[in-house]
Design a protein that fits this description.
Blueprint lengths: L2 E2 L4 E2 L4 E2 L4 E2 L4 E2 L4 E2 L4 E2 L4 E2 L2 E4 L4 E2 L4 E2 L14 E4 L4 E2 L4 E2 L9 E4 L4 E2 L4 E2 L4 E2 L4 E2 L4 E2 L4 E2 L4 E2 L4 E2 L4 E2 L4 E2 L13 E5 L2 E6 L1 H7 L2 H15 L5 H11 L3 H12 L12
Parallel strand pairs: 1-4, 2-5, 3-6, 4-7, 5-8, 6-9, 7-10, 8-11, 9-12, 10-13, 11-14, 12-15, 13-16, 14-17, 15-18, 16-19, 17-20, 18-21, 19-22, 20-23, 21-24, 22-25, 25-26
Antiparallel strand pairs: 26-27
Length: about 260
């Protein structure tokens, strides 16, 4: 049985599944779909064609699905899709997609978005990510799985962030960050592997392979794309291949301090 406060506004057409709670003065649009077990606090706005999965927690004053902040947007149909078991903290702002970016903003499962996080149009986020307070993600950014982004970190549009990456708080990120790496600074550059995160999830053999690959890629002063291609061809490690493939496919480049040859 759902619990809906009498002051909440639920437009006709909204789909509210079982065991959903909606707090005082919240607004749910006619196109919204809210999965079972989701808890929506007071003063939340869920606008537009927004689909929210099961067992999410959405805290007060969040705005989800309001029109994208893109001057090219002219009212065409766009979507925001949020998976299951996410926690979205106070004052988060998440926009739907735009026609030029595929029309969909998509958030996976088991993520924590802290207070004042902003996800712009056409952002895609995987699973088990943590975005700390006031992280601001521009349009068309792709974020993998198990990613941690520190507070007060802006991320430039079209940046791609691989799995198991950690971005230190207060960084400003303008280029792609390969999987398994740690980046920090304004502008952010690679500072090594995200060893704390990797030790929680990967085997010692995988980590040792990645350490060796990282040294060859970023610490020996050789052409990055050439080394990545050679490692991809020669390595038997799926993690090393993932790292190298990301580098070879990067469109914005990889920020690291090049050694003198």
């Amino acid at each position: 049985m759902s619990i809906i406060h009498p002051t909440a506004i639920i437009e006709n057409g909204a789909i509210i599944e079982e065991n959903v709670s909606i707090g005082a003065y919240s607004y749910i649009s006619s196109q919204a779909k809210i999965g079972s077990g989701t808890k929506i606090s007071s003063h939340v706005v869920i606008d537009g064609d927004t689909t929210i999965g099961k067992n999410n927690t959405i805290l007060s004053h969040c705005v989800l699905g309001s029109p994208p902040q893109d001057l090219k947007y002219k009212g065409e149909p766009v979507k925001l899709i949020i998976g299951d078991n996410n926690t979205i903290r106070e004052f988060a702002l998440i926009n739907p997609g735009t026609k030029g970016g595929g029309s969909i903003t998509c958030i996976g499962n088991n993520n924590l978005l802290m207070g004042y996080v902003h996800l712009a149009h056409d952002v895609h986020i995987g699973d088990y990510c943590i975005l700390a307070n006031a992280a601001n993600v521009a349009g068309h950014v792709i974020i993998g799985n198990h990613v941690v982004i520190g507070g007060l970190t802006p991320i430039h549009q079209f940046v791609k962030i691989g799995d198991y990456v950690m971005i230190a708080g207060g960084s400003a990120l303008a280029q792609d960050i390969p999987p398994f790496c740690l980046a920090e600074g304004n502008r952010a550059t690679l500072r090594g592997l995200n060893l704390v995160g990797l030790r929680r999830k990967l085997s010692r053999d995988d980590i040792n392979e990645l350490k060796s690959a990282y040294r060859q890629l970023f610490e020996q002063g050789q052409p990055l794309q050439e080394v990545a291609n050679n490692l991809y061809q020669s390595s038997n490690s799926s993690k090393v291949k993932e790292l190298c493939q990301f580098i070879m496919e990067s469109k914005r480049g990889i920020p690291f301090e090049r050694k003198q040859q």
